[in-house]
Amino acid sequence: MSLLELDGVNSYYGESHILRDVTMDVEEGQIIALLGRNGAGKTTTLRSITGARPPDVRSGTIRFDGTDITGNPPENVSALGLSLVPEERRMFSNLTVRENLHVPDISRNLLNRLGRPMETGKTGLSDEEVYEQFPRLDERRDQKAGTLSGGEQQMLAIARTLKQDTELLMLDEPSEGLAPQIVQDVLDIIQRIADQGKTILLVEQNAAAAMKLADYCYVLDQGSIVFEGPSEELQANDEVRKEYLGV
Ligand code: ATP
């Protein structure tokens, strides 16, 4: 069953037409990779899905779990169980690991007070479940986030997202800036989250790593999908890999 569907999506930054008729199908329980070079439109695709502005989605439809979410504000979209770990990770470097993990609770309370309650009362992992699943964060509970290594910060960003009730986890370049050995740790965590039944949409420039992890891949170039197929098919397709991914 499709959990997320994009049908002919066209997105713009002002008058710049960035996404061109993007159609994608994210099957429940799978790891889907969205690949492509710098500037291909990967982040724009994720932002279009979450309802972040900019960009403007001017035509096409985005459906999550059968509900049309095109143009819905981000807090409504995330309340449905769709979460994004953004590329820049957005840590509060002067707050501790424990405090950073409480940020989702604080935002939820704030939205309630503003009279814009999240639509579900459901929550994701408890603090204890987070520490069980991320032993590194457990060891560093009282350490300031700014003093964590890149890999640990990425783990914290993922853990914080899982504190919300999440069915579809989208990750924007989780391996960015990490040492190769740490990249593997982060990929193992993503695999484990998938094994626990979550659906994953993974945006990566590190195509080699993403292809290993993903069930199915989409390749974007200049805002258009130029390839889609099972990972093995992409791995075997030298032409597409060289032309659009440089690997
Ligand atoms: P990267 O790995 O660099 O993030 P990407 O595939 O995620 O690459 P996008 O960030 O989606 O690419 O960018 C797609 C295009 O949209 C690029 O040409 C970029 O310059 C342009 N763009 C991105 N953000 C904006 C913005 N806020 N305003 C105008 N143009 C933008």
TrEMBL record:
SMART domains: AAA. It comes from the Archaea. InterPro entries: AAA+_ATPase, ABC_transporter-like_ATP-bd, ABC_transporter-like_CS, BCAA_Transport_ATP-bd_LivF, P-loop_NTPase. The keyword Cell membrane does not apply. The keyword Transport applies. Keywords: Amino-acid transport, ATP-binding, Nucleotide-binding, Transport. GO terms for molecular function: ATP binding; ATP hydrolysis activity; branched-chain amino acid transmembrane transporter activity. Residues 4-247 form the ABC transporter domain. SUPFAM superfamilies: P-loop containing nucleoside triphosphate hydrolases (SSF52540). GO terms for biological process: L-amino acid transport. Belongs to the ABC transporter superfamily. This is ABC transporter ATP-binding protein.
